[in-house]
């Protein structure tokens, strides 16, 4: 049985998230085109069903249930979308991890993405507190981190 309520809830959330990212992006200097196409890969068959199952129960209510399918979809999403810091992370054969410098336009979209996630999930902009709570998990090149921290300050009033 297809859980249409689950898929509808996922669609509604994704569109809401994209809208808030678009609005934050305008204020943070993200191009209109970049704001419009943000996260379009989430609608692909290789991502959407896994996202729906991870984040929504069959009745459409929210949950978080990480699965192998979601991990594959999330990995694909990171590698398809340059606004994710993981896209700019190079894993060397010797297990070293190198953070590459992120172009400014993607750093701006990444911060807009964080704003959009907070607004879509919690109804408010929590980007500054979220970033400083999670900073240790976000691998960034030193120059990118400087830019991101300026943008986070700027984005707290978006």
Which structural category do the helix and sheet elements fall into? mainly alpha
Q: Give the overall shape, derived from the CA principal axes.
A: globular
How are the strands of the biggest sheet laid out side by side?
1-2
Radius of gyration: 16 Å
Total number of strands? 2
Major beta-sheet overview:
2 strands, antiparallel
| End-to-end gap | 41 Å
The ordered H/E elements are HHHHEEHHH
Work out the count of structural domains: 1
Task: Give the helix level as a range of percent.
Answer: 55-70%
Beta-strand percentage range: under 5%
Mean pLDDT: 96
Poorly predicted runs? none
What's the number of helices?
A: 7
Short description:
The chain contains seven helices and two strands, in the order ααααββααα. It is mainly alpha-helical and 158 residues long.
Q: What would you say this structure looks like, in words?
A:
- This protein is mostly helical.
- The chain is 59% helix and 4% strand.
- It is globular.
- Strands 1-2 form a two-stranded antiparallel ribbon.
- It has helices spanning 4-28, 32-37, 48-55, 68-80, 104-122, 127-134, 142-155; strands at residues 89-91, 97-99.
- The mean pLDDT is 96.
- It starts with a helix and ends with a helix.
- It has one domain (4-155).
- Strand 1 (89-91) and strand 2 form a beta hairpin.
């Amino acid at each position: 049985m297809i859980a249409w309520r689950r898929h509808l809830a996922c669609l509604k959330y994704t569109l809401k998230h994209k809208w808030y990212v678009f609005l934050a992006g305008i204020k943070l200097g993200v191009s209109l085109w970049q704001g419009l196409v943000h996260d379009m890969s989430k609608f692909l068959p290789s991502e959407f069903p896994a996202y729906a199952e991870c984040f929504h129960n069959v009745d459409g209510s929210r949950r978080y249930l990480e699965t192998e399918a979601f991990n594959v979809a999330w990995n694909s999403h990171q590698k398809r979308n340059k606004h994710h810091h993981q896209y700019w992370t190079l894993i060397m054969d010797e297990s070293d991890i190198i953070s590459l410098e992120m172009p400014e336009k993607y750093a701006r979209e990444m911060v807009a993405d964080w704003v959009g996630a907070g607004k879509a999930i919690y109804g408010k902009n929590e980007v500054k507190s979220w970033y400083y709570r999670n900073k240790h998990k976000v691998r960034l090149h030193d120059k990118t981190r400087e830019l991101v921290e300026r943008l986070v300050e700027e984005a707290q009033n978006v």
